[in-house]
Amino acid sequence: MKEIKLIGLSVMAAVLLAACGGGSGGGSTSAVTPADASSGPLSKYVGVWNQGCQNHEIFTTTISATSGGTALSVSQKMEYYENANCTGAIVATGTYASPFLVAQHVRTEANASVKMLTGETVASSVDVVNATASGGAINFVGSAVSSSVVNGKTVWKFVFKDATLTQTIEVSSGSRQGAFMLRNGELFTIQAIGSSSTAFAVESRYVRA
User: Fold this and answer.
1) pTM of the model
2) Where is 175: in which H helix or E strand?
3) Distance between CA atoms of 152 and 48, rounded to whole angstroms?
4) What is the pLDDT of residues 118-142, one digit of tens each?
5) Which of 6, 59, 76, 208 is 20 to 30 Å from 97 by CA-CA measure?
6) Residue 60 CB coordination number (10 Å)
7) What DSSP state is assigned to residue 70?
8) Are 203 and 159 in contact (CB under 8 A)?
């Protein structure tokens, strides 16, 4: 069983949120513009992002700007494809009733030290945020999905031609401080190293969908 726990900014790191690694995805999305015309510090993160195909799954995260670009609203769609390489029909789709994460700008570190997933350390501007998870539930529909309740938790079962995937998705409310970074057109969620205000390490990497 694959259990996905999404808490605070770890939502962004665990999908944006529950997917890991790279790859190429399927499906199509359209560009997203900020909720208001602004040049706030977080406006540059607006768009549609994912981490590619992960064994039938593509998790697409949509980021919109609010409050003049000083805050972000994050929504997510989970799509499950007939084939493991994310081709064929979409046989299950999961959505939240409302944005599951909001992030408020705290400060910008113009010359932070960031340890990348490759192990190298680069100098970059990063935006520190307070992220709050809404605690909203996700709902799946489609020909391949069914659900049951086990020990008080909803267990989702996805039946494909070549495999069966079982997931318990637990979304909790709460807040956490983290940071965002853009580098070479890619989005990174990062965390401070220890108590440092200028040294960070990458948690996850996303590309535009």
Assistant:
1) 0.79
2) strand 174-183
3) 33
4) 999 999 999 999 999 888 888 999 9
5) 208
6) 20
7) T
8) no
Say if residues 77 and 95 touch (Cβ distance below 8 Å). Answer: yes
| Phi and psi, residue 69, nearest 5° | 85, 10
Q: CA 16, CA 60: separation in Å to the nearest integer?
A: 8
User: Could you report the per-residue pLDDT of 87-118, keeping only the tens digit for each?
Assistant: 999 999 999 888 889 999 999 999 999 999 99
Sequence letter at residue 33: T
Q: Which residue matches tokens 């994310």? A: 86
Nearest 5°: the CA angle 161, 76, 9 is: 120
User: Residue 105 is encoded by which pair of tokens?
Assistant: 């700008």
Tokens of 88: 């064929």
Residue type for position 175: S
Cα gap 90→165, rounded to integer Å: 15
Is 116 in contact with 146 (CB distance < 8 Å)? no
Q: CB atoms < 10 A from the CB of 109, how many?
A: 20
How many other C-beta atoms can be found within 10 angstroms of the C-beta atom of residue 84?
16
